[in-house]
Amino acid sequence: LIGFILNTRFKVDLAIVRILGVLQRFAIVYGVIATIEVLCSRPEQYIMSTKDQPSMSTVAVKSRALQRIRTLFCDITNFPVQWLINIALAAIWVLVVYLVPYENCPAGYLGPGGLDENGKYENCTGGITGYIDRVIFTDKHLYQYPTCQAVYGCNISFDPENLFGAMPTIFLAYLGVQAGRILVMYQNHADRLARLFTWSILTTMIGVGLTAGTLDSGPMPLNKNIWTLSFSFFTAGLAFAGFALMYIFIDLLKWWNATPFQYPGANSILIYVTHLVFASFFPVQWLVVNTHAAHLAMALWGCIFWIIISYILFKKRMFLVL
Fold first, then answer.
1. Residue of 87 and 50 predicted with greater confidence
2. Where are the bilayer-spanning segments (predicted)?
């Protein structure tokens, strides 16, 4: 609802207002993940037990190797239903994207359309993900200024927070659940870090492998606008590594307490909304020379400005949470 309201700040005509957006993507992803966890998780799944289970054979129960494996991977094996659901959602995305053609567009096309490939797929912007949005929401309710316009001259609407792209995003969010699950189930620093770094290496390798080691091509290119599954794996790898490093600096070595990032983190939804509302107002933004350096400096100042605001709110003990 907040995301939809923000979309009306320049277009109050509900007949043409954009429906999708960043917060809407969060709502879908968190809603699905939370539903899966609430319906499928049980307290006993978080217990790392190697005790005998009556349903198992005597030989299997007494096998120390099997017990060790169960303990080592219980953060995965204890949650088969959750993993199957999330893998199924990711598989559906892959099958639809790579096997379903539409209109004059081939299955598996993930390009920007327009002038891409000499205009061969002019009206195929975003592939099947863009087509699904245009069928469900119609052109007038989608983002009208996609990034492909400036480079490829694409002339149809495409929403970077497209509905179908939520499925790979859900898988990425579930990998975040896995990171939290590691902290809950393993209390030893070494166990936690070993798993976080292992997941980082594994997901990064899968992400790079899906692109065949290329930046913007391969079987499944890294594409944030479409939110390809390779993008989910690659960003998950970076996130696992970043999380592990922060864990070392903050929790293990206690060299840092996350300042100043803890301040906007404590008021994330408020800072997100206000930064959009006041993005074009002084002292957040003003006219500067049109160079990369000037715009970079402006962006850095905007980040610092909102950290200052969030620091003031933090000190005054003012928090807006949902």
1. 87
2. 83-100, 163-184, 196-215, 227-249, 269-288, 294-314
